[in-house]
């Protein structure tokens, strides 16, 4: 007997052909329902065995068309499938007219027994009809012939009625079949096209299915994932995750959270995962479905925002500390300066006071450098000497690095006056970031940190090796360490945002990416030399300005004198006394007030009694800005000087533009205060 095998999988067709031919059957094969239907109509088989899920025409549609065809409808039809295995699928298939429904894989002996049983049923039907004809009473041969024809006609009519009823039933379910197939196709298409990754695991967390989204996210081909444990996609540091998920699902019905997953190339990515159970009709869990979304970008943005918030908090804190600290410095330096005047001729005392003043200046510069990092302001590129930036950075580094790290400053003779076009704050940040990274590489055993500046001419020979540069002079900043060094893999990624080899809490991975951005924005170039165990060297090249000169330094001048009347306001008594002590020897008449409200009453009582008002910015009652506004409402022409230990650029701009006030930063010297007072008074007169 001839059997037609229909399956789109070559391996499945091969196994069935080998099995059936081994038991003496003639076998033909087709790869889909359309091909099988064409072959059967040309040469009908004695039996058909068909898969269900196939391209072009699936098995359900094939069975429907098979039973419509008058030549094929009596040929037995067997479904053999591994896809549609539920009870409702079996009922649906038998409802279409199929004789048997077998689930893959079936034992060979059982499969052959089913085939034989199905064929025997077909054979028994004609035999039963022949036996019935023989047993029918006939009067004669003619009567027998006539009676046989009647019996055959009746049998055919019954068969036709049954087939018509079956066809009517098939027509009714055809719409359901088409809708079911359309829904399945729509669901499959949607799952394949969504950006999220879908993973279906069995109860042992072995991957059974992944969609194309997982391929895009992880870089794996789905064939590389199916059959392997899901743990292979998860960061190795995650322990007990499967048990945690199971407990959450039993408790809450679902688990969702973030985890680190691993791509094919070994890199980690942050994933937002929701895991839900799949249950059978009895309620038992048969699978787990995971919806995975790559949120690495969002996580990095969150880190950046947290870092920005942290820096904003640091800036606010630094501002408050700077104000209080500068007030203390103002008192120390001011008193030392006044004492220096009184100690004229006492050389030992003068030297000691000079040391106090020098220490105060260094403390003032230290506060200024701290504020440089915390202050948010628009960057302004201008001619800048690179060597002094290195010197200032080293001063700050010496106070923060352990004594096991030696800091060397190497400024080439011709590079001391090298000038570039840059923002001082940004260049300071570049030096500090590179130096801090170098120090981290030497934190365990110490070493030598070298920061140097040299000049370099980029000619044709250099351009051959570095085509990204332009011909001309360059100022080069070199930062080297004797630390642990880096291998090629790490060196290639050090400028990637958020990439870091430091432990959690030791760094964000933004330092070197910031350096690269600043260097690039300034038209420069950066190179790195490093290998494990031999330290690291960063070479930064900046286009040098040829005709730029170092800013000239004004010679020291004697404080300007005057005879005007000044109202001096500060909530700290020592600072008001100090202001009086600085200005009265210069010829000014100074009245002091420690309360801004009292100062306002004094001015209201005699607006013409003063030529200038000097006020602290931060005071209880009325701030210096508020006091200045009320005084100007009374007398718009009076000059006002605001003193502050910390101010943002926006505050200075507001003072100058809105209040027409001058600003003096604490701690100030007697010369600076006198100069500012004289300019304010002279500007009023002109």
What secondary-structure arrangement, pairings included, does this model have?
Elements: E1 2-6, H1 10-22, E2 26-30, H2 33-42, E3 47-50, H3 59-68, E4 77-81, H4 87-95, E5 100-103, H5 108-134, H6 141-193, E6 197-202, E7 207-210, H7 212-218, H8 222-225, H9 241-252, E8 255-262, E9 268-279, E10 285-294, H10 296-342, H11 347-374, E11 382-385, H12 386-398, E12 405-411, E13 419-422, H13 424-441, E14 447-458, H14 460-465, E15 472-481, H15 488-491, H16 511-521, E16 525-530, E17 536-543, E18 565-569, H17 573-583, E19 589-593, H18 596-605, E20 612-616, H19 624-634, E21 640-644, H20 649-658, E22 662-665, H21 670-685
Parallel strand pairs: 1-2, 1-3, 3-4, 4-5, 12-14, 18-19, 18-20, 20-21, 21-22
Antiparallel strand pairs: 6-7, 6-10, 8-9, 9-10, 11-13, 14-15, 15-17, 16-17
Helix pairs in contact: 2-3, 3-6, 10-11, 10-17, 12-13, 13-16, 18-19
């Amino acid at each position: 007997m001839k059997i037609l095998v229909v399956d789109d999988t070559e391996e499945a067709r091969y196994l069935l052909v080998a099995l059936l031919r081994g038991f003496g059957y003639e076998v033909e094969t087709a790869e889909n329902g359309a091909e099988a239907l064409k072959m059967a109509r040309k040469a009908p088989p004695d039996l058909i065995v068909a898969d269900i899920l196939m391209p072009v025409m699936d098995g359900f549609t094939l069975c429907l068309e098979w039973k419509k065809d008058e030549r094929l409808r009596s040929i037995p039809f067997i479904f053999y499938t591994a896809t549609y295995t539920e009870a409702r699928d079996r009922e649906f298939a038998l409802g279409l007219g199929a004789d048997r429904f077998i689930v893959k894989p079936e034992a060979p002996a059982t499969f052959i027994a089913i085939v034989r049983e199905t064929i025997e049923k077909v054979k028994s039907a004609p035999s039963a009809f022949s036996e019935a004809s023989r047993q029918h009473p006939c009067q004669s041969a003619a009567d027998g012939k006539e009676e046989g024809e009647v019996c055959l006609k009746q049998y055919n009519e019954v068969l036709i009625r049954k087939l018509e009823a079956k066809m009517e039933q098939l027509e009714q379910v055809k719409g359901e079949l088409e809708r079911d197939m359309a829904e399945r196709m729509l669901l499959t298409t949607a799952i394949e096209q969504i950006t999220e990754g879908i993973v279906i695991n069995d109860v042992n967390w072995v991957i059974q299915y992944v969609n194309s989204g997982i391929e895009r996210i992880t870089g794996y081909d789905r064939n590389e994932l199916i059959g392997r444990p899901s743990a292979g996609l998860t960061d190795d540091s995650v322990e007990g995750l499967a048990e945690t998920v199971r407990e959450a699902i039993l408790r809450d019905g679902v688990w969702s959270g973030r985890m680190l997953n691993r791509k094919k190339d070994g890199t980690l990515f942050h994933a937002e995962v929701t895991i839900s159970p799949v249950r059978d009709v009895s309620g038992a869990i048969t699978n787990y479905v995971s919806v995975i979304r790559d949120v690495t970008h969002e996580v990095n943005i969150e880190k950046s925002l947290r870092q920005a918030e942290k820096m904003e908090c640091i800036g606010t804190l630094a501002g408050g500390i700077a104000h209080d600290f500068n007030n203390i410095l103002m008192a120390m330096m001011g008193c030392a300066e006044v004492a220096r005047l009184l100690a004229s001729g006492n050389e030992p005392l003068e030297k000691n006071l000079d040391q106090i003043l020098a220490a105060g200046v260094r403390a003032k510069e230290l506060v200024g450098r701290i504020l440089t990092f915390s202050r948010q302001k628009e960057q302004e590129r201008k001619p800048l000497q690179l060597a002094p930036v290195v010197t200032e950075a080293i001063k700050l580094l010496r106070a923060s690095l352990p004594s096991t790290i030696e800091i060397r400053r190497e400024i080439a003779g011709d590079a001391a006056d090298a000038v570039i076009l840059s923002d001082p704050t940004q260049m300071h940040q570049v030096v500090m970031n590179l130096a801090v990274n170098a120090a981290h590489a030497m934190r365990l055993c110490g070493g030598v940190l070298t920061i140097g500046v040299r000049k370099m001419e980029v000619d044709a020979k250099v351009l051959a090796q570095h085509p990204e540069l332009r011909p001309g002079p360059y100022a080069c900043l070199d930062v080297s360490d004797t630390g642990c060094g880096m291998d090629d893999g790490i060196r290639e990624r050090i400028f990637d945002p958020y990439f870091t080899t430091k432990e959690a809490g030791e760094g964000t991975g933004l330092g070197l990416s910031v350096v690269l951005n600043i260097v690039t924005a300034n038209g420069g170039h950066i190179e790195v030399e490093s290998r494990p165990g031999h330290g690291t060297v960063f070479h930064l090249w900046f286009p040098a300005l040829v005709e730029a000169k170092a800013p000239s330094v004004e010679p020291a001048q004697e404080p300007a004198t005057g005879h005007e009347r000044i109202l001096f306001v500060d909530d700290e008594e020592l600072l008001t006394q100090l202001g009086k002590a600085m200005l009265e020897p210069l010829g000014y008449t100074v009245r002091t007030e420690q309360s801004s409200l009292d100062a306002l009453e004094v001015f209201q009582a005699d607006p013409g009694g003063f030529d200038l008002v000097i006020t602290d910015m931060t005071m209880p009652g009325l701030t210096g800005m508020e006091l200045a506004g009320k005084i100007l409402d009374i007398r718009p022409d009076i000059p006002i000087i605001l003193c502050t230990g910390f101010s943002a650029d926006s505050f200075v701009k507001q003072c100058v533009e809105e209040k027409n006030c001058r600003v003096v930063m604490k701690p100030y010297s007697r010369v600076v205060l006198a100069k500012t007072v004289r300019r304010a008074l002279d500007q009023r007169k002109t």
